[in-house]
Amino acid sequence: MNLVHSTSSADDRAVMVTRVSDMQWHAVEDDLTVGRGDASRRPDGRLFISIDAWHGAVFDRIVAAMLADLPTALYAVVDEADHDSRSAWERAGFAVACREWGYLVPTDPHISGLGSVRPPSGVTIVPAGQAEEGPLRTLDRVICDEVEATIGWRTMPAEVLPRPAGTTLVDPSKYAVAQHSDQYVGLVRVAPLIRQPRIGLIAVRADRHRRGIARALLAHALGSLHRSGVSAAWAEVDEANAAATALFEGIGARRTAGTLELVRR
Protein backbone atom coordinates (compact mmCIF):
# COMPACT_ATOMS: atom_id res chain seq x y z
CA MET A 1 0.00 0.00 0.00
CA ASN A 2 1.50 3.34 -1.07
CA LEU A 3 -1.02 6.16 -0.79
CA VAL A 4 0.87 9.47 -1.20
CA HIS A 5 -0.09 12.86 0.19
CA SER A 6 2.06 15.69 -1.18
CA THR A 7 2.32 19.14 0.45
CA SER A 8 4.82 21.98 0.39
CA SER A 9 6.67 23.55 3.28
CA ALA A 10 7.17 27.29 3.77
CA ASP A 11 10.29 27.29 1.55
CA ASP A 12 8.49 25.33 -1.20
CA ARG A 13 10.28 22.05 -0.56
CA ALA A 14 7.87 19.15 -0.98
CA VAL A 15 7.00 16.96 1.97
CA MET A 16 5.68 13.59 0.80
CA VAL A 17 3.56 11.66 3.28
CA THR A 18 3.19 8.04 2.20
CA ARG A 19 1.08 5.30 3.73
CA VAL A 20 3.67 2.53 3.65
CA SER A 21 1.45 -0.12 5.29
CA ASP A 22 -2.04 -0.48 6.74
CA MET A 23 -0.90 1.09 10.00
CA GLN A 24 2.16 3.20 9.18
CA TRP A 25 2.91 6.48 7.40
CA HIS A 26 6.26 8.12 6.53
CA ALA A 27 6.95 11.80 5.81
CA VAL A 28 9.91 12.42 3.52
CA GLU A 29 11.55 15.75 2.62
CA ASP A 30 14.57 15.93 0.28
CA ASP A 31 14.96 12.13 0.53
CA LEU A 32 15.15 12.36 4.33
CA THR A 33 12.54 10.79 6.61
CA VAL A 34 11.34 13.64 8.82
CA GLY A 35 8.41 11.97 10.55
CA ARG A 36 6.42 8.80 11.10
CA GLY A 37 2.84 8.01 11.98
CA ASP A 38 1.56 4.76 13.44
CA ALA A 39 -1.90 3.38 14.14
CA SER A 40 -2.83 0.45 16.38
CA ARG A 41 -6.15 -1.08 17.32
CA ARG A 42 -6.66 -1.79 21.01
CA PRO A 43 -8.32 -5.04 22.13
CA ASP A 44 -11.54 -3.09 22.80
CA GLY A 45 -11.67 -2.08 19.13
CA ARG A 46 -10.61 1.58 19.44
CA LEU A 47 -8.04 2.90 16.97
CA PHE A 48 -5.11 4.82 18.49
CA ILE A 49 -2.61 6.84 16.47
CA SER A 50 0.81 8.24 17.35
CA ILE A 51 3.16 10.57 15.47
CA ASP A 52 6.89 11.18 15.72
CA ALA A 53 7.88 14.28 13.75
CA TRP A 54 10.83 16.65 13.67
CA HIS A 55 8.70 19.80 13.82
CA GLY A 56 5.12 20.95 14.06
CA ALA A 57 4.53 21.52 10.36
CA VAL A 58 5.45 17.90 9.57
CA PHE A 59 3.24 16.69 12.42
CA ASP A 60 0.32 18.59 10.91
CA ARG A 61 0.90 17.03 7.49
CA ILE A 62 1.20 13.49 8.85
CA VAL A 63 -1.92 13.78 10.98
CA ALA A 64 -3.85 15.25 8.03
CA ALA A 65 -2.85 12.26 5.91
CA MET A 66 -3.82 9.81 8.62
CA LEU A 67 -7.18 11.48 9.15
CA ALA A 68 -7.84 11.26 5.42
CA ASP A 69 -6.96 7.57 5.29
CA LEU A 70 -8.53 6.29 8.52
CA PRO A 71 -12.10 6.04 9.80
CA THR A 72 -13.20 7.86 12.93
CA ALA A 73 -13.27 7.79 15.88
CA LEU A 74 -9.51 8.09 16.45
CA TYR A 75 -7.67 8.27 19.76
CA ALA A 76 -4.26 9.49 20.92
CA VAL A 77 -2.38 9.60 24.22
CA VAL A 78 -0.19 12.48 25.38
CA ASP A 79 1.73 13.40 28.54
CA GLU A 80 -0.25 16.09 30.33
CA ALA A 81 2.93 18.13 30.84
CA ASP A 82 3.73 18.10 27.10
CA HIS A 83 1.82 21.22 26.12
CA ASP A 84 3.29 21.39 22.60
CA SER A 85 2.10 17.88 21.75
CA ARG A 86 -1.34 18.52 23.21
CA SER A 87 -1.66 21.72 21.15
CA ALA A 88 -0.64 19.85 18.01
CA TRP A 89 -3.33 17.22 18.51
CA GLU A 90 -5.92 19.88 19.32
CA ARG A 91 -5.07 21.68 16.06
CA ALA A 92 -6.07 18.46 14.34
CA GLY A 93 -9.46 18.43 16.07
CA PHE A 94 -8.70 16.13 19.01
CA ALA A 95 -10.17 16.85 22.44
CA VAL A 96 -9.57 15.46 25.93
CA ALA A 97 -11.64 12.37 26.65
CA CYS A 98 -10.17 11.37 30.02
CA ARG A 99 -7.15 11.79 32.30
CA GLU A 100 -5.06 9.09 33.96
CA TRP A 101 -2.88 9.78 37.00
CA GLY A 102 0.46 8.08 37.51
CA TYR A 103 1.39 7.22 41.11
CA LEU A 104 4.66 6.28 42.75
CA VAL A 105 3.61 3.80 45.43
CA PRO A 106 5.86 3.16 48.47
CA THR A 107 6.36 -0.49 49.37
CA ASP A 108 7.71 0.12 52.90
CA PRO A 109 4.86 -0.77 55.32
CA HIS A 110 6.08 1.91 57.73
CA ILE A 111 5.35 4.50 55.06
CA SER A 112 2.21 2.98 53.58
CA GLY A 113 0.74 2.06 56.96
CA LEU A 114 -0.11 -1.40 55.61
CA GLY A 115 2.13 -3.37 57.95
CA SER A 116 -0.72 -4.30 60.29
CA VAL A 117 -3.31 -4.92 57.57
CA ARG A 118 -4.67 -8.45 57.47
CA PRO A 119 -7.34 -10.03 55.25
CA PRO A 120 -10.88 -9.96 56.68
CA SER A 121 -12.16 -13.01 58.51
CA GLY A 122 -12.44 -16.07 56.30
CA VAL A 123 -10.33 -14.59 53.51
CA THR A 124 -6.84 -15.79 52.64
CA ILE A 125 -4.35 -14.41 50.12
CA VAL A 126 -3.00 -16.84 47.53
CA PRO A 127 0.46 -15.58 46.43
CA ALA A 128 1.31 -14.83 42.82
CA GLY A 129 2.00 -17.97 40.83
CA GLN A 130 0.00 -20.22 43.15
CA ALA A 131 -3.57 -19.46 42.05
CA GLU A 132 -5.50 -22.10 40.10
CA GLU A 133 -5.94 -20.89 36.53
CA GLY A 134 -9.55 -22.05 36.09
CA PRO A 135 -11.05 -20.21 39.10
CA LEU A 136 -8.80 -17.22 38.34
CA ARG A 137 -10.19 -16.93 34.82
CA THR A 138 -13.71 -17.25 36.19
CA LEU A 139 -13.07 -14.36 38.59
CA ASP A 140 -11.53 -12.32 35.78
CA ARG A 141 -14.65 -12.71 33.63
CA VAL A 142 -16.92 -11.74 36.54
CA ILE A 143 -14.86 -8.62 37.25
CA CYS A 144 -14.74 -7.71 33.53
CA ASP A 145 -18.54 -7.83 33.36
CA GLU A 146 -18.94 -5.80 36.56
CA VAL A 147 -16.50 -3.11 35.48
CA GLU A 148 -18.08 -2.84 32.04
CA ALA A 149 -21.50 -2.44 33.65
CA THR A 150 -20.29 0.45 35.83
CA ILE A 151 -17.31 2.67 34.95
CA GLY A 152 -16.49 0.76 31.73
CA TRP A 153 -13.25 -0.90 30.65
CA ARG A 154 -12.31 2.14 28.60
CA THR A 155 -11.31 3.82 31.86
CA MET A 156 -8.78 1.07 32.59
CA PRO A 157 -5.06 1.26 31.71
CA ALA A 158 -4.26 -0.06 28.25
CA GLU A 159 -2.45 -3.12 29.57
CA VAL A 160 -5.61 -4.47 31.23
CA LEU A 161 -8.11 -3.81 28.48
CA PRO A 162 -10.12 -6.97 27.72
CA ARG A 163 -8.90 -9.14 24.87
CA PRO A 164 -11.22 -10.23 22.04
CA ALA A 165 -12.05 -13.38 24.00
CA GLY A 166 -13.37 -11.18 26.82
CA THR A 167 -10.54 -11.67 29.28
CA THR A 168 -7.81 -9.45 30.71
CA LEU A 169 -5.90 -12.48 31.94
CA VAL A 170 -2.67 -12.87 29.97
CA ASP A 171 -0.15 -14.34 32.43
CA PRO A 172 -1.81 -16.04 35.44
CA SER A 173 1.54 -16.20 37.29
CA LYS A 174 1.45 -12.43 37.85
CA TYR A 175 -1.76 -12.53 39.90
CA ALA A 176 -2.21 -12.89 43.64
CA VAL A 177 -5.81 -13.57 44.66
CA ALA A 178 -8.08 -13.27 47.67
CA GLN A 179 -9.94 -16.50 48.42
CA HIS A 180 -13.06 -16.95 50.55
CA SER A 181 -14.02 -20.56 51.19
CA ASP A 182 -13.56 -22.22 47.78
CA GLN A 183 -14.11 -19.07 45.73
CA TYR A 184 -11.74 -16.40 44.43
CA VAL A 185 -13.16 -12.96 45.23
CA GLY A 186 -10.38 -10.46 44.42
CA LEU A 187 -7.11 -10.14 42.56
CA VAL A 188 -4.04 -7.98 42.17
CA ARG A 189 -1.69 -8.06 39.19
CA VAL A 190 1.93 -6.95 39.48
CA ALA A 191 4.13 -6.79 36.39
CA PRO A 192 7.73 -7.38 37.58
CA LEU A 193 9.34 -4.82 35.29
CA ILE A 194 13.09 -4.39 35.72
CA ARG A 195 13.09 -0.63 36.22
CA GLN A 196 10.01 -0.44 38.42
CA PRO A 197 7.28 -3.03 39.10
CA ARG A 198 3.83 -1.97 37.96
CA ILE A 199 0.54 -2.61 39.72
CA GLY A 200 -1.51 -3.27 36.62
CA LEU A 201 -4.84 -4.12 38.22
CA ILE A 202 -6.47 -4.51 41.61
CA ALA A 203 -10.12 -5.53 41.72
CA VAL A 204 -12.67 -7.19 43.99
CA ARG A 205 -16.04 -8.70 43.17
CA ALA A 206 -18.85 -6.19 43.63
CA ASP A 207 -20.57 -8.29 46.28
CA ARG A 208 -17.39 -8.23 48.40
CA HIS A 209 -16.68 -4.51 48.30
CA ARG A 210 -16.05 -2.44 51.45
CA ARG A 211 -14.66 -5.37 53.45
CA GLY A 212 -10.98 -4.48 53.26
CA ILE A 213 -10.10 -7.09 50.62
CA ALA A 214 -8.52 -4.66 48.15
CA ARG A 215 -6.44 -3.11 50.91
CA ALA A 216 -5.29 -6.57 52.02
CA LEU A 217 -4.34 -7.51 48.46
CA LEU A 218 -2.37 -4.30 48.09
CA ALA A 219 -0.64 -4.88 51.44
CA HIS A 220 0.36 -8.35 50.29
CA ALA A 221 1.64 -7.20 46.89
CA LEU A 222 3.61 -4.25 48.24
CA GLY A 223 4.95 -6.28 51.15
CA SER A 224 6.29 -8.91 48.74
CA LEU A 225 8.01 -6.21 46.69
CA HIS A 226 9.50 -4.62 49.79
CA ARG A 227 10.95 -7.91 50.99
CA SER A 228 12.59 -8.36 47.59
CA GLY A 229 14.31 -4.99 47.90
CA VAL A 230 11.98 -2.84 45.79
CA SER A 231 11.31 0.56 47.33
CA ALA A 232 8.44 1.74 45.10
CA ALA A 233 5.98 0.50 42.50
CA TRP A 234 4.08 2.30 39.76
CA ALA A 235 0.32 2.50 39.31
CA GLU A 236 -2.02 4.32 36.93
CA VAL A 237 -5.54 5.37 37.89
CA ASP A 238 -8.28 7.04 35.86
CA GLU A 239 -9.21 10.31 37.56
CA ALA A 240 -12.87 9.27 37.50
CA ASN A 241 -12.12 6.16 39.60
CA ALA A 242 -12.62 7.71 43.02
CA ALA A 243 -12.28 4.44 44.92
CA ALA A 244 -8.89 3.59 43.40
CA THR A 245 -7.64 7.15 43.86
CA ALA A 246 -8.62 7.08 47.54
CA LEU A 247 -7.00 3.65 48.01
CA PHE A 248 -3.61 4.72 46.65
CA GLU A 249 -3.53 8.22 48.12
CA GLY A 250 -4.52 6.73 51.47
CA ILE A 251 -1.27 4.74 51.61
CA GLY A 252 1.00 7.64 50.73
CA ALA A 253 1.23 7.11 46.96
CA ARG A 254 2.58 10.25 45.27
CA ARG A 255 1.03 11.55 42.09
CA THR A 256 3.92 12.21 39.72
CA ALA A 257 2.46 12.24 36.22
CA GLY A 258 -0.69 12.68 34.22
CA THR A 259 -1.67 11.23 30.86
CA LEU A 260 -4.43 12.55 28.63
CA GLU A 261 -6.45 10.39 26.29
CA LEU A 262 -7.62 12.45 23.33
CA VAL A 263 -10.34 11.63 20.81
CA ARG A 264 -11.47 12.92 17.43
CA ARG A 265 -14.93 11.74 16.47
TrEMBL record:
Gene3D superfamilies in alphabetical order: 3.40.630.30
InterPro entries: Acyl_CoA_acyltransferase, GNAT_dom
Transmembrane segments: none
Coiled coil: none
Domain of life of the organism encoding this protein: Bacteria
N-acetyltransferase domain span: 134-265
GO molecular function terms noted in the UniProt entry: acyltransferase activity, transferring groups other than amino-acyl groups
Keyword field contains S-adenosyl-L-methionine: no
UniProt keyword annotations, A-Z: Transferase
Name of the featured protein: GCN5 family acetyltransferase
Organism of this sequence: Streptomyces noursei (Streptomyces albulus)
